[in-house]
Each structure stands twice: as C-alpha cells, then as structure tokens.
Amino acid sequence: MSTDLVRLSCISTGTTARASSTWKHDTRKFGPLNAINNNTEDAWKSAQSEEGSDPLAYFEIDFHRPVRVKELRIQFQGGFVGMDCIVYQKCGNENNADWEECEDLFLDPIDSNEVQTFASEEEEDDNAGGKCNAIRIEFGRSTDFYGRIVIYSLEVWGRESS
C-alpha cells in the first residue's frame, strides 16, 4: 500500500457518521462519531440487536466530498466484534445516489481488541473508478451473544479526489 494515504475520516474535515443504533440511545457517550473522533477511550456501542435483523447493524461514514478509499483500520472491543461484513459505497451526487456494494474492499474481522487493517484490492493506477462520497459497513452478526458491536476506532485512509 502506498505511503501517500491520508486519513479521510476526520471530523475536522466535515466527515460525519451514523449508525443503525446506539446503546441506551446515548449518542454523547456511545454515538457513532465516537468511533471517528481520534480518541480510543470513546466508542460507538450498538444497542442489543433484534433476532433476525438483516443486517444486524450498520455503520455509515459520509465524507461530504469525493474520495478514493484505499484502507480501513478498525479497532473493535473483543467479544463485541461485527462479523460477516459487506461494504457499500455511494458515488456521485450524494443526495440521490444509491448504495452499491464495494467489490474491492473485503472485511473479515477476527474477535480481537487489536487494530485490524483491511486494504482495498483496487489497482493502484486505476483512476477510472473508486470515487465515493460515503461508505456503509453492514454487519451480519456479532461475536456477542446479544448481537452488540463496539468500535473504538474506525479510520478510513485513502486519497482526496476531484
């Protein structure tokens, strides 16, 4: 992976986050912005999931600008890891774009507290595609018996695009 990547998921650049649920509806303590605020003492904690929910939970990051995602770095709380992940992206005009499955980014987390890095399989010299305004990670299941997911840090790395 190239070393000229920048962190795209910074609140200071206008990036926002939302999620399917928040533990006890307390967005200040457990909301999705806590996963992208660069403070690993904060976290997004999902609420207990309903049995049979499809997806179990999701986490969205809106960059509000076109970017090329090259890498995701995620730190879960062990025992509360989101599994069976599918990554989607929104391309084009963010107001009317549909979510499309991101074929180049595959997430297969393990049940661990360590930061896990998932690199895009997109070719480095591919300038034709890969631009998106937002990404969405859908979690099909959790390692927690009650379906809860905890993310301490979710960093999106890549390049600004025009």
Description:
- The protein contains one helix and nine strands, in the order ββαβββββββ.
- It has 162 residues and is mainly β.
- Strands 1, 2, 3, 4, 5, 6, 7, 8 and 9 form a nine-stranded antiparallel beta sheet that branches.
- Helices cover 2% and strands 42% of the residues.
Q: Which terms summarize this structure?
A:
mainly beta, 42% strand, single chain, 162 residues
Short recap of the structure:
With 162 residues, this protein is mostly beta strands.
Oligomer state equals single chain
**Helix-and-strand structural type:** mainly beta
How would you characterize the largest beta sheet? 9 strands, antiparallel
Poorly predicted parts: none
Give the beta-strand count. 9
Cα-to-Cα separation, first versus last residue: 21 Å
Beta-strand content estimate: 35-45%
> Averaged pLDDT, please?
90
Rg estimate, integer Å:
15 Å
What share of the residues lie within helices?
Answer: under 10%
Number of helical regions: 1
* Backbone shape: globular
H/E element order: EEHEEEEEEE
